Amino acid sequence: xxxxxxxxxxxxLQEFDGAARILNLEPGIWKILTSPKRxxxxxxxxxxxNGEIEVFVGYRVQYNITLGPAKGGIRYHPNVTLDEVTxxxxxxxxxxxxxxxxxxxxxxxxxxxxxKMSKREIEALTRRYIAEIVDAIGPEKDVPAPDVNTNDxxxxxxxxxxxxxxxxxxTSVVTGKPVELGGSLGRREAxxxxxxxxxxxxxxxxxxxxxxxxxxxxxxxxVGSISAELLAQEAGAKIVAVTDWKGGVYNKQGLDxxxxxxxxxxxxxxxxxxxxxxxTNADLFKLExxxxxxxxLENQITAENAPTIRAKVIIEGANGPxxxxxxxxxxxxxxxxxxxxxxxxxxxxxxxxxxxxxxxGYFWTEKEVNERLEAKMCEAFSAVLQTSIKYKxxxxxxxxxxxxxxxxxxxxxxxxxx
Length: 418
Fold this sequence. Notes:
- Helices cover 45% and strands 17% of the residues.
- By secondary structure, the chain is an alpha/beta fold.
- The strands form two sheets. Strands 9-8-7-6-10-11-12 form a seven-stranded mixed sheet, with helices on both faces.
């Protein structure tokens, strides 16, 4: 798939190229690793509640399956494109390789607006979409998961639809399921826990104590809120600022995170939280803190606002929150950035644990899940940090070097099938 000007896939190729050049990747392997293996486009007719039939377009891309089955979420959004899904599948390839788990990269999406659909319509769409791609997915082929606007209930429908087609219950076809249907304990907290581990390990490297360290968090959804909670409760850090879609709050003495979590459950925003000053997103980035966690949308840290950032460490809880230009500016100033494909890889790592448990038919305690996650995250962080030091590059480039190197090595070993 050729990169077009301004395409998301083109942005992925830009990140790939820098690391591939350092590795002196041979042209043949380069071509293989920049070409999606399989791109599926399907039409999904659904009878809506008003009796009319709508035809939705769905995609499933399996970018690379050299290391194992494709792994990646399914998103429901009006702006889903094949270019976006392909880029996300590529990033999943590198994320799984950085995490050192036996999965390739995949991603799915359906062009729809689930906020304007009933539960029955969403279920009907899900079942039809899975029926259309059923031959391409499976525990040893491609294992979907939740993503934007999809959740554990939708994954339950995915599992049930696939199971009806193959004639037996197959829980390991999908991850992110309810615990009652073979989901893993600790999955909901996994990405936030990984961000906490990345922040703790970064503090050790940069040279400050995470206990008592000041932290600012942009975005207070699943990742941001759990990162803040675990950093405060388990690492002893001081969360001084949080912003979300509506506003933000700041307290230099540290926010009361349990109370803030209760407040957001009721108000659906951090805006107006008592015992704190109001704060904008722009001001959050200017705070002099030890750790900044962008856990909202992509392209939040840009060449325009990067010069005002005074954090020592940035942990990317969100996907793609920092533009390439901003990354270079910050790295040149000595800011230590843990990139998304490492910082939030704990989500897919725990999805891997769920897949393993389903295939075993034996389930771990939450303590066991967290212990295994700790080990995998520390292993991944160390591998990327050592690569960064070896090649004298930033952590983002180092993460790509690790990932591309692992996929390229196995590609060479497997050889060409003809």
